[in-house]
Amino acid sequence: MSEISAVVASDLTLRYRSPTQATRGIAVDGADLEIPMGSILAVVGETGSGKSTLARAVALHADVRDERAPEITGGSLSVLGKELRGISARARSRLGLRVGYLRQEAGQHLAPRLTVEENIIEPIMTVDRRFDRTEAGVAAASLLDAVRLPLRLLDAMPHELSKGQRQRVAIARSLVLEPELLVADDPTAGIDVTVRGQILDVIADIQQERAFAALIVTADLGEVRRIASRVAVMMRGRIVGLGELDEVLDDPFHPYVRRLAQSLEATSALPIDAA
Predict the structure, then answer these.
(1) Scanning 71, 95, 161, 194, which has the fewest C-beta atoms within 10 Å of its C-beta?
(2) In a domain, 120, yes or no
């Protein structure tokens, strides 16, 4: 029997609820993609392309009782072997224990009154309040080390950290339940350009060590090479390029992908001092 893929989308269409037809647009239109277990897919596209909506759906945040959440209105979406269309709340909750989600600017949404350690282990204690506190602390320390932060920060408060440090804490938090799939929505958004590469390297290194699957959204095609060899390019809700990064860029069949390839080539040709 073949191994179950981490994510399979087939002709997937996602919409947002709206009381008026004029604003009830399609956010994702007929997407087809697959993420094998243990692999990373980077999703690239401009603002409004649907990439964050796709990420939210894969992270189990579609078809929930929230008018701001997308709805699956066509096709199918399977995560870790479970079809999401029509899934029960109980089954979604169980599946959620196996999926880590790093929302946009997640570091800015840490609980301000909890320490770094308490923020990291909060998902564990939410699932099981009787979980051994010492064991949870060991997990927090291990993850803090994995995201390359000093252990002395375990007792720090979020406001005492830099933006980049808070984002690393958020990464640790998203991985504390040891998920089989990580969904990271633009993990370097709002982060100083000098440390964006370090954030991506942290995710890539932990993924290689723990072998979870990942869907990582980014607006910067130049960042993709640091984290993934496979890419999906989105434009206006559609996937207009999908496959190995070099193959997609070397033979782009869509004008938007062609422009991206030319832009990346021009950037790469700049001297280091000018970049």
Answers:
(1) 194
(2) yes
Q: Cβ(54)–Cβ(216) under 8 Å?
A: no
Please say whether the beta carbons of 248 and 242 come within 8 A: yes
Residue 142, both tokens? 């291990």
pLDDT tens per residue across span 11-56:
999 999 866 554 457 899 999 999 999 999 999 998 889 999 999 9
When computed from its CA atoms, the radius of gyration of the chain, rounded to whole angstroms, is: 19
Could you tell me if 80 and 193 lie in one domain? yes
Say yes or no: 21 and 59 in one domain. Answer: yes
Residue 207 within a domain: no
Asked if 213 and 36 touch (Cβ cutoff 8 Å), the reply is yes
Does 208 map to a domain?
Answer: no
Q: Which helix (H) or strand (E) holds 183?
A: strand 181-185
78 and 6 co-located in one domain: yes
